[in-house]
Amino acid sequence: MSHRLQLDDLVTTCHWIGQKGWAPATGGNMSIREDAEWCWLSESGKDKGSLTPDDFLQVSIADNHAPSGRRPSAETGLHTLIYRLFPDAGAVLHVHTVNATVLSRVVRAPQIAFSGYEMQKSLRGQTTHLDSLPVAIFDNDQDIEALARRIEEYARQHTLSYGFLLRGHGLTCWGRDVAEARRHLEGLEFLFECEMQRRLLERE
């Protein structure tokens, strides 16, 4: 599929994310890969629920440069890192859902593992609820370059699949195309909500 068609799919997904309230107050950022050198990333400060294709900027995967001179998202460096780390990643979604944000603060460990949930199978390669599915959690940082370096160091030593949480910030996830990234987002968000509810009930 051409990047133009993928961009149309991404805009539709952004509207869906906006309707769910998963990127409030112009938060969040989304992108697609064009090829090995370029990606298209949402412009900073735009409401994700009303984006159009014109609200995406071409950005260099190697150095985050936007030839248009317009300002891409503050988290540009995380998107380009994912495209460099995972050659099969074709789309990246970053959202600020309540479940992802709160759970990332409740869990003090560097990752959370899900097991026993049928919805684990919504993630590519997962075939049974019996497996343990780890999701990494990184401390948030306004220095995106420093944060990207920490994530890259983690990825060299651990499996980093589907997505990761930023503590007190939200979820970043990806897939081979927009449809898979959207499925991973919805599946992970379901798991986060289930885990939040389980923890609340266990306290009663």
Please provide a brief summary of the model:
The chain is of the alpha+beta class. The protein is 38% helix and 20% strand. It has a single domain, classed as 3-Layer(aba) Sandwich (L-fuculose-1-phosphate Aldolase), CATH 3.40.225.10.
Textual characterization of the structure:
The chain is of the alpha+beta class. It has one domain: 3-Layer(aba) Sandwich (L-fuculose-1-phosphate Aldolase). Helix content is 38%, strand content 20%. Strands 3-2-1-4-8-7-6-5 form an eight-stranded mixed β-sheet, with helices on both faces. Strand 6, helix 4 and strand 7 form a beta-alpha-beta unit. The chain is globular. The protein starts with a helix and ends with a helix.
Low-confidence stretches: none
CATH fold-type name: L-fuculose-1-phosphate Aldolase
Count of the separate structural domains: 1
Structural class by secondary-structure content: alpha+beta
Please give the alpha-carbon distance between the first and last residues: 50 Å
- The amount of helix comes to 25-40%
- Global shape: globular
- CATH homology superfamily: Class II aldolase/adducin N-terminal domain
| Largest beta-sheet characterization | 8 strands, mixed
Descriptive labels:
204 residues; L-fuculose-1-phosphate Aldolase; 5 helices; EC 4.2.1.109; aldehyde-lyase activity; metal-binding; lyase
Blueprint (SSEs and pairs):
Layout: H1 3-20, E1 29-33, E2 38-42, E3 56-60, H2 76-85, E4 91-95, H3 98-106, E5 111-114, E6 133-138, H4 144-157, E7 163-166, E8 170-175, H5 178-203
Parallel strand pairs: 6-7
Antiparallel strand pairs: 1-2, 1-4, 2-3, 4-8, 5-6, 7-8
Helix pairs in contact: 2-4, 3-5
